[in-house]
Design goal:
This protein has 244 residues and is α/β, with parallel strands linked by helices. It is built from nine helices and seven strands. The chain has helices at residues 13-24, 37-49, 64-78, 102-126, 140-143, 150-170, 189-192, 198-202, 214-225, and strands spanning 4-7, 28-33, 53-58, 83-86, 132-136, 176-182, 236-239. A seven-stranded parallel β-sheet has the order 3-2-1-4-5-6-7, sandwiched between helices. Bound molecules: NADP nicotinamide-adenine-dinucleotide phosphate (NAP). Residues 8-15, 32-36, 60-62, 87-90, 111, 115, 136, 138, 182, 184-185, 187-189, 192, 214 line the site of NADP nicotinamide-adenine-dinucleotide phosphate.
Length: 244
Amino acid sequence: MNRVAIITGASRGIGAATAKLLASRGYAVCVNFRSRVEQAEAVVAEIVASGGKALAFQADVSVEKEVAALFDATEQTFGPVTELVNNVGVLFHQCRLVDMDVERFARIMTTNVTSCFLCCREAMRRMPDGGAIVNVSSLAARTGSPFEYTDYAASKAAMDTLTKGLSAEAAERNIRVNGVRPGFIHTDIHADGGEPGRVERLTPSIPLRRGGQPEEVAQAIAWLLSEESSYVTGSLLDIAGGRK
Ligand SMILES: NC(=O)c1ccc[n+]([C@@H]2O[C@H](COP(=O)([O-])OP(=O)(O)OC[C@H]3O[C@@H](n4cnc5c(N)ncnc54)[C@H](OP(=O)(O)O)[C@@H]3O)[C@@H](O)[C@H]2O)c1
């Protein structure tokens, strides 16, 4: 069977690294993005230049109709989607919960959790038996990210619970559903939170004494999608340099 993977939020960071790695392993990949068209096209160009198959597709995956369009476009280009990586995640400026407004909280939940639900549902409706889904959560689901992003942390905990529940439902079709929980990874997301140097500040709290690279998260995602993890489902894998 041809392996066809959708990676949401793949114009940069962990999503881009995952798209490149999967393409190098023979998957046809859909590089989904919301706004950074040039970066998404650069990811696709790099994959194609290395002999891989890739398509860039703009869709806000928190919107039901756009998720359907994303799956339609991928299927029309490459055939049925066999793997899905729900990688989209956003956060906003660091602050205490007491200072968060309800609009911010709703946007975090819609972008991080509703998108995961919508893409999982679409995948379950269309994916052949034997497929795989990986949801990109965060170690924040366990720590709660006090003083910084309690809203984001709560959204990631919701994703973990969705992963657990869906994995049991999907098992009857041999579709495996797992999650990864990265710790502090060197990407641009920290600048969105108002602190580009956040990983460096927090490095002393990481047992391995360094932040992670997006490619190190991509390796774990690729393993969870592959036959090498054929007996793993409903699992949440920390990729956090030993941080608990
Ligand atoms: N970096 C870390 O330290 C870390 C730690 C734990 C967990 N994570 C999780 O890992 C995932 C990736 O993180 P990252 O650091 O690589 O993030 P990033 O560099 O900020 O990239 C986020 C990606 O998501 C896309 N995106 C955002 N909203 C979208 C939407 N509604 N629809 C479609 N695409 C959307 C962005 O596309 P555009 O730019 O085109 O809008 C971008 O490609 C996230 O779920 C994050 O929560 C990251």
